[in-house]
Amino acid sequence: MNSRQNIIPLFPLEKVLYPGMAMPLHIFEERYKELINLCVSERRSFGILHGLDVQQPVIGTTARVEKVLNRYDDGRMDILVVGEERFEVRQVFKYKAYLEAEVSYFDDAPSNKPEPTHLGELVRLYKLYIRRLDLESENLVKLDDLMEEVEQERELSYIIGQTIGLDLRRQQELLEKTEPMARVKLLTAILHRHDVVYGLARRLFEGQEEFDPTMN
What we know:
about 25% strand
């Protein structure tokens, strides 16, 4: 982050943003036009979080505006943001058109990284999942290149979590986990279940036109 603030603007969304991951946003509400213009002009980050139940701890991720893609005559904007740090909301303030919150930042708890065998199994299942989407060969090559470049487990789990169609509850669960191995186990279990269901469906519909080889 350019500056580490304990009080940040909030942007509640029906989405989950992971650290290091990019997300496009279309800004059209007046309060969020004000928020984004402030963050762009002052190079500030803001908090994206799924839901805002202040009766419970709320976990989100700070976002930095990487680029303003389009500006419209009425003030609407298309922007690209990148996730930075995870935070927990401590107190919410309603002094402005948009919400602000006092937050505390957190990272993974000190622990041993997952064994290469565990990461290898996760990558294997993920590649199977992707190949069933019937991507063009050039995109499969890009996937292989990406997996070779990823060195940190956090990046790997967030890349996979963002691209396998998790529901919002599961996305949020992944975001909140502070043990690398816990993230690996969660994603491995989900992808293993996809693999089992795919195998059963293939055997059930093998030889029939109704079978869709891209199902997952």
